[in-house]
Amino acid sequence: MAEVNYSGTAAHHEEVFNSDINRFAGDLIKNKGQLTRLNPYFAGITYGRTDGNSFGNYGSVEVRQSYSHGFSIQGIYTFGKVLDYYSTSNTLDSGSVTTSTNVIQNGDLKAQRGRADFDIRNQFTAAGTWNSPEHYSKAWERNTLGGWKLGGVWVMHSGLPFTVYTSAAFSPVFNSSGQVVGNKGGDYNADGYNYDVPDVPSFGSSISGKSPHQYLKGIFSASAFPTPPLGKEGDLGRNTYNQPGFNNVDLTAGKEFTTGFLFGDKLHMEFMAEFYNLFNRVNLHGVNSDLSSSLFGHSTDQLPARSIQMHLRARF
Question: Which terminal Cβ of the chain has fewer Cβ within 10 Å, N or C?
Answer without folding.
Answer: N
